[in-house]
Design a protein that fits this description.
Helix content is 28%, strand content 25%. By secondary structure, it is α/β, with parallel strands linked by helices. Helix 8 packs across helix 9.
Length: 535
C-alpha cells in the first residue's frame, strides 16, 4: 500500500511535531549519549537559520556542507532548508582534490560551512564565503561573538545563540512555513558514488525527497514510534531518504553515529531501543565475521536492518538471519532514481530486491525496449515524479532526468510473483564468445563454500573469446581454502562458458567509501598477477 502524506516545509513539520510531542526525543548522538527533543530541535533550527540569514544566506543560495557528520550536520541541513537554501553536502576527502575542484566549479557555491577546527586549505578554490561552526551542544552563556558580519565569527549550536548579544534582534523573520507550494523547489545537489571518473552532481527538488521518504515508510512499515539508527554519511542520498526524510515526515526518533562501530553496535541498539537500523553488505559481513554479543536480549528491540548501496549475497543474507534472528530488508535504489524496489517488512523474498515501490514506474526491457518475459534478464528502466531533476553540467545547467524513461544500465529480471532479481550492471557483464555471463551467478556459488567470506568475478581480455571470467576470493579469517576445491565446485555447478579461468586468493577486495567494489582495480590486479607469475 502506498503511503500518502501531504507535503510540508521543514518549519511546518518541526512546528507540528513540537506541538504534538514537545518532549519526545527527536535526535540522538549515540556516541556521546546526548539527545534533543522536538521543542529543542525546532528552537535550534530557527536559531541557526537566523544566524545564517544574518550571514546573507538567502533562498536559492548554493551552500556546501563540508566534511562534517553527526547532529551538527543535520541541524545545519534543516536550518538551510528552513531558509529555502540549496544544500550541497560534500566530502572532499572522498572526492579527492581534482574531483572536489570539478564539483565545486559546477556547483559554484555562495557559502561553505565548515567546522571551526577544520583545515580550510583542503577546500577547492572558489569565491565562496567560508562560515565556520562550533560543536554541538554549545554553552548558551559563553562569551561568544555572534556578529556574523565578522569573518572570524562562528555559528553556535545553542537554542538562543543571540539572546546575549545586544547588537542583534532575535526576532529576525524567517520564511513563512505556511506559504503554499515549494515541493518543486530545488532542495539539494549531491554527488554520486561512482567508482570511476569525476562523480556526477545530481540535482533534487523537494518532490524527490518527499516521495522517496514515503516509499521508505512503506518499505519498512515505519511509524512515529520507531527509533532508527543511521551511521552512514549524510552525503549519501541513501542515508538522506532512508533516515532523515522519514524522521521529518513522521516525527519519529533518529539516532546517529559518525561511523559504524562493530564493538559498540549492540550497546547502541540496547541503550537507545533502536527498532530499525541502516545497513550495507559490508556491515552485515563484519557482524558475521566477528559476531557481537547478543546475550541478555541486547538486540531485542531491533525488528529490522536494511541492506542497500551494494549487492547483497543470498548466502550472507541467510547466514545473518540464522545467527541474529533479525529481519533483513534488501533494497534497491540509485542516486538518480532513489528507491526503485524493496523487500517489505511484511512481504519479502530471499535472493531478490523485493518488488517495485509505489512512486515509480518500473520495467525490465530487452534491447528493443519491449518488456521481458518473467525470469528473462533485461535492462531496468524507470520513470516518475520522484526521479532526480537532472545532472548539473560544467556550464551550470541541469541536464534533465525526470520527464522521460531513465535507462539505468542495471540488469535484472522479474519473477512470476513480481519480485525483482538484480544481476549486476550492464558494464559488468562478461561476454565470453557471445555468451553473457552474470558475475553474481559465479559469486553466489563461491560464497556457498563455508571458508569463503567474499568473492567477485570480473571479465578480463581473451584473444579468442573476447573475455573470460576470473575470480577474486577472500577467505574467512583463520580458515584455509584450496583453490582446487573452488575449481571443482565451479566445474560441478556451472556450464563451461561460465567457469572462471583463474581464481585468486586475496586478503580483501578494493571498495570505495560507500562499499562498492572497484572492478577496474581488480582488473589491474589481475594484470599484475599475470605478469608477475603469481598463482
Amino acid at each position: 500500500m502506498t503511503v500518502a502524506l501531504p507535503f510540508a516545509r521543514v518549519g511546518a513539520l518541526l512546528d507540528a511535531h513540537r506541538q504534538r510531542t514537545p518532549h519526545k526525543t527527536a535526535l540522538v548522538d549515540v556516541e556521546r549519549n546526548l539527545s534533543i527533543d522536538f521543542t529543542e530541535l525546532a528552537q535550534y533550527v530557527d536559531a541557526l537559520a537566523r544566524q545564517l540569514q544574518r550571514a546573507n544566506v538567502t533562498r536559492g543560495a548554493h551552500v556546501v556542507l563540508a566534511g562534517s557528520e553527526g547532529i551538527e550536520k543535520l541541524l545545519l541541513w534543516l536550518a538551510l532548508w528552513r531558509l529555502r537554501a540549496i544544500v550541497c553536502p560534500l566530502d572532499v576527502a572522498f572526492l579527492g582534490a581534482h574531483g572536489a575542484q570539478r564539483v565545486f566549479d559546477r556547483i559554484d557555491p555562495a557559502f561553505v560551512l565548515i567546522a571551526e577546527h577544520a583545515d580550510e586549505t583542503v577546500l577547492p578554490t572558489s569565491g565562496a564565503r567560508i562560515v565556520r561552526f562550533g560543536a554541538w551542544p554549545a554553552n548558551a552563556d559563553a562569551d561568544v561573538d555572534t556578529n556574523v558580519d565578522d569573518p572570524q565569527a562562528q555559528l553556535r549550536f545553542v537554542t538562543t545563540p543571540l539572546a546575549t548579544a545586544s547588537n542583534h534582534d532575535d526576532d529576525t523573520p524567517l520564511p513563512d512555513t505556511d506559504e503554499p507550494g515549494g515541493i518543486d523547489e530545488i532542495a539539494a545537489m549531491c554527488c554520486t558514488s561512482g567508482t570511476t571518473g569525476v562523480p556526477k552532481v545530481v540535482v533534487y527538488d523537494h518532490a524527490s525527497y518527499w516521495y522517496n521518504g514515503l516509499d521508505t515508510i512503506d518499505l519498512l512499515a515505519l511509524t512515529a514510534d520507531d527509533r532508527t539508527l543511521e551511521y552512514r554519511s549524510f552525503d549519501w542520498y541513501s542515508a538522506q531518504i532512508l533516515s532523515l526524510i522519514p524522521f521529518l515526515q513522521l516525527g519519529s526518533t533518529l539516532c546517529v553515529a559518525r561511523s559504524f562501530s562493530r564493538s559498540r553496535f549492540a550497546q547502541w541498539i540496547a541503550t537507545h531501543r533502536v527498532s530499525v537500523s541502516a545497513g550495507v553488505p559490508t556491515v552485515l559481513n563484519l557482524l558475521l565475521e566477528a559476531p557481537v554479543d547478543i546475550e541478555g536480549g541486547k538486540l531485542a528491540s531491533l525488528r529490522a536492518i536494511t541492506c542497500s548501496t551494494a549487492p547483497l549475497s543470498t548466502v550472507q543474507w541467510a547466514r545473518f538471519e540464522a545467527h541474529y534472528g533479525i529481519r533483513v530488508l534488501n533494497l534497491y535504489g540509485s542516486s538518480e532514481a532513489g528507491w526503485m524496489c524493496g523487500n517489505r517488512y511484511t512481504r519479502r523474498k530471499f535472493g531478490t530486491v523485493g518488488y517495485p515501490v509505489g512512486h515509480i514506474g518500473f520495467s525490465v526491457v530487452d534491447p528493443n525496449g519491449a518488456p521481458c518475459a518473467p525470469g528473462t534478464p533485461g535492462q531496468v528502466v524507470v520513470a516518475g515524479e520522484k526521479l532526480a531533476l537532472g545532472l548539473l553540467n560544467d556550464a551550470h545547467r541541469i541536464e534533465p532526468i525526470r520527464g522521460a524513461p531513465l535507462a539505468t544500465r542495471d540488469v535484472a529480471s522479474i519473477d512470476t510473483q513480481g519480485f525483482v532479481v538484480v544481476s549486476g550492471r550492464m558494464d559488468d557483464l562478461i561476454i565470453r564468445g557471445g555468451v553473457k555471463v552474470l558475475p553474481q551467478e559465479i559469486e553466489d556459488l563461491l560464497l556457498e563454500h563455508p571458508a569463503v567470506q567474499d568473492a567477485v568475478a570480473v571479465g578480463v581480455p581473451d584473444p579468442i573469446y573476447g573475455q573470460e571470467p576470473v575470480c577474486f576470493v577472500v577467505p574467512h579469517p583463520g580458515m584455509k581454502i584450496e583453490i582446487a576445491e573452488l575449481v571443482t565446485l565451479c566445474r560441478a555447478k556451472l556450464p563451461r562458458e561460465k567457469q572462471p579461468r583463474q581464481i585468486y586468493l586475496v586478503n580483501e577486495l578494493p571498495r570505495n567509501a560507500r562499499g562498492k567494489i572497484l572492478r577496474d582495480a581488480l582488473r589491474r590486479e589481475w594484470w599484475t598477477f599475470t605478469h608477475s607469475g603469481k598463482p
